[in-house]
Design goal:
One of its GO terms (biological process) is fatty acid beta-oxidation, unsaturated, even number, reductase/isomerase pathway. It is an enzyme of class 1 (oxidoreductase). This is 2,4-dienoyl-CoA reductase. In the N-terminal section; belongs to the NADH:flavin oxidoreductase/NADH oxidase family. Its EC number is 1.3.1.34. The strands form 7 sheets. The chain has an 8-stranded parallel β-barrel with strand order 3-4-5-8-9-10-11-12, surrounded by 7 helices. The chain has a 5-stranded parallel beta sheet with strand order 15-14-13-16-27, with helices on one face. Strand 11, helix 9 and strand 12 (about 310) form a beta-alpha-beta unit. Helix 3 (about 135-155) packs parallel to helix 6 (about 195-205). The protein has 21 helices and 27 strands. The longest helix has 20 residues, at about 135-155. It folds into 3 domains: about 5-350, Alpha-Beta Barrel (TIM Barrel), CATH 3.20.20; about 375-470 and about 630-674, Rossmann fold (3-Layer(aba) Sandwich), CATH 3.40.50.720; about 470-520 and about 555-625, FAD/NAD(P)-binding domain, CATH 3.50.50. By secondary structure, it is of the alpha/beta class.
């Protein structure tokens, strides 16, 4: 046990005590809208309480119909809606936990034609122009917030979090960027913050003193014409006077073109702004964004940057995060890698959120690994993401697992991913798997190719042999300047100063970033802030350098060409919440991009292509092939007549583009039933 951890210290709010300093921050899972979803949500939150979380904040619930994010999204406005919420609160309280419901009015971010906002200004991320709220509608909405909070209290919630950041309705009133009113709710900052203060005041009057009110305050808007630092402080002090119990940190509007939670964002990149506010108010503050390890949490709390820390995705990745930290087993924590692929990307596609490294997240009632009554000796061939995940899950169930890996280390494609600037978090996933393999006594055989003649000693075989690069038939493809992406990322071959990258999918874009950025800005926060125009001195409104959020070009060491046969825009198929970041990086590094390219030949002169009806020779000294991959089926063919059950998972089953999300889920589903 390590009871001296700062994260384990209780926090006294006067009328109640939080058992530790860890908040599970708000995240919409999609279960809120599913049939019987609240029963599943109850189990989801209950596991996090059992895992040690001090306080949970739910996904956003609207106080009225017009405030819903989508027409089918959840609201709490009527007494008959209380019962389903009680399912969640009873489950959390049964294990000694505390839970607050987040009140979120979308404002102009609503994805439906009934949206209301302070002013009739369309957001750049939704197709609908909102109607400007009348004073009567403003007053009615304030009452709706208070009524919803009172219903939350009746449902058994310990409090509410008022969503006043990320560019939602309350934030829209606060900022000049979206508030062009000329009445009592517009103009001066005192008027623009009036709506927020009246919402909190009405809630407090409705729920009484012994009910937690958290206000999520946008401390750093990261948009032009956002709040100034003086305005942030003025609002925080006014909220303190309204007896808000906690102030949570909000970073960046959703429309801001600056990454705030992606894996390329440095860890704890925004705790400096929470610390800055901590010198201005006495109400406890919660730090957020890219906090994913015990070490980061301890640094924040021990140096006085915040009173609590909020984590959402890290508790998708590992519901036992706090419990493992308390027991001194940090190496067993399944760390969030900030990829967004299974959580936020799903949410924005109206799918159930889950987690790439933990496919059980939000599937706790459907995907489990009970001890088997029929233990088997299983051979797992390939220690990439699919093979590693299966080995761990199967061993947890009590099967005897032998894991074969031809290379001298586990990881497969993750060993390539971890070398990309901004993807250093993949090191943590491999650390986790190494620790779990040792804990579960999995027999790991490195530098060992599985021989089809060895099947006799196993009951079943699981092939997770991954992928091999797709071969192209271009004249000169065997030229000395040609390199496969695997050879490049493993350090087996070096690229020159003028490079053509063939294939502009996720792999090609990663390779371009690898070649362009010799020192990762993710590991150098000051350079990262400068790159994205973030001003830690907060001299301008919104916290932007020179009041604008634009990447400025950095010194380039290479000339890069990124080529694809498709005529579509490069990067079109990337993740919904992170694709724009990758495209911005290509622009930042001045990568020359060509679509609709015909590859003609590679020779000493360079790479001959046809583009826009013209033949060209790119005078390059290296050509990196990133033209996709194919299933590594050699062993599969050898095992066709082995007379043992053979299962295929991951890339060897479907050679999708480095799809670790699908590979790990494949592994989990098979392990649950084998």
């Amino acid at each position: 046990m390590t009871p001296n951890l700062a994260m384990l210290q209780p926090l006294d709010l006067g009328f109640c005590q939080l058992k530790n300093r860890v908040v599970m921050g708000s995240m919409h899972t999609g279960l809120e809208e599913e049939k019987h979803g609240f029963e599943k949500l109850a189990v989801f939150y209950q596991e996090r309480v059992r895992g040690g979380v001090g306080l949970i904040v739910t996904g956003g619930i609207s106080p009225n119909f017009r405030g819903r994010l989508t027409p089918g999204a959840t609201q709490l406005s009527f007494p008959w809606q209380v019962a389903k919420h009680r399912i969640v609160t009873k489950a959390v309280h049964a294990d000694g936990g505390k839970i607050c419901m987040q009140l979120l009015h979308a404002g102009r971010y609503a994805y439906h034609p009934f949206s209301l906002a302070p002013s009739a200004l369309k957001s750049p991320i939704t197709p609908f122009t909102p109607k400007a709220m009348s004073v009567r509608q403003v007053k009615g909405t304030i009452k709706d917030f208070a009524r919803s909070a009172k219903l939350a209290q009746k449902a058994g919630y310990d409090g509410v979090e008022v969503m006043g950041s990320e560019g939602y309705l309350i934030n829209q009133f606060i900022s000049r960027h979206t508030n062009q009113r000329d009445d009592d709710y517009g103009g001066s900052f005192a008027n623009r913050m009036r709506f927020a203060i009246e919402v909190v005041n009405a809630i407090r009057a409705a729920v009484g003193d012994e009910f937690i009110i958290i206000f999520r305050l946008s401390m750093l808007d990261l948009i032009d014409d956002g709040s100034s630092w003086d305005e942030v402080v003025q609002l925080a002090k006014a909220l303190e006077q309204q007896d808000v119990n906690l102030i949570n940190t909000g970073i960046g509007w959703h429309e801001a073109r600056i990454p705030t939670i992606a894996t390329s964002v440095p860890r704890a990149a925004f705790t400096w702004v929470t610390e800055k506010l901590r010198h201005e108010v006495s109400v406890p503050l919660i730090a957020t964004n890219r906090i994913n390890t015990v070490e980061v949490i301890e640094q924040i709390l021990r140096t006085g940057q915040a009173d609590m820390v909020s984590m959402a995705r890290p508790l998708l990745a590992d519901p036992e995060f706090v419990q493992k930290a308390a027991a001194g087993h940090r190496e067993l924590i399944n760390t969030c890698i900030g990829c967004n692929q299974a959580c936020l990307d799903h949410t924005f596609k109206l799918q159930r959120a889950t987690c790439l490294v933990n496919p059980r997240a939000a599937y706790e009632t459907e995907l489990n690994f009970p001890l088997t009554t029929n233990p088997k000796h299983l051979a797992v061939i390939g220690a990439g993401p699919a093979g590693l995940a299966f080995a761990v899950y199967a061993a947890q169930r009590g099967h005897q697992v032998t894991l074969f890996e031809a290379r001298d280390e586990i990881g497969g494609q993750f060993n390539l991913a971890k070398s990309i600037p901004g993807k250093e978090e993949f090191h943590e996933t491999l650390r986790y798997f190494n620790a779990q393999l040792a804990r579960l006594n999995v027999n790991v055989k490195l530098n060992t190719r599985f021989d089809a003649n060895e099947v006799k000693g196993f009951d079943e075989l699981v092939v997770a042999a991954g992928v091999v690069p797709r071969q192209l038939s271009i004249p000169g493809i065997d030229h000395a300047k040609v390199i496969s992406y695997q050879q490049l990322l493993r350090g087996e071959k070096q690229a020159g100063t003028k490079v053509a990258i063939v294939g502009a999918g996720g792999i090609g874009i990663d390779v371009a970033h690898f070649l362009a950025e010799t020192h990762s800005a993710t590991l150098a926060p000051d350079r990262w802030y400068a790159r994205w125009g973030i001003d830690k001195q907060y001299q301008y409104a919104g916290g932007l350098t020179h009041a604008q959020s634009k990447c400025e070009a950095e010194d380039e060491q290479r000339t890069l060409y990124l080529l694809q046969r498709k005529t579509s825009a490069i990067g079109k198929g990337l993740g919904k919440t992170t694709g724009w970041i990758h495209r911005a990086m290509l622009k930042l590094h001045q990568v020359k991009m060509f679509s609709g390219v015909e590859y003609q030949a590679i020779d000493d002169a360079g790479f001959h292509i046809q583009h826009d009806g013209q033949s060209k020779c790119l005078e390059v000294d290296s050509v990196v092939i990133c033209a996709g991959q194919e299933s590594n089926r050699q062993l599969v063919d050898e095992l066709q007549h082995c007379r043992k059950p053979v299962h295929l998972i991951g890339g060897v089953k479907v050679a999708a583009e480095l799809d670790a999300k699908r590979a790990i889920r494949d592994a989990a589903l098979l392990a649950a039933k084998i």
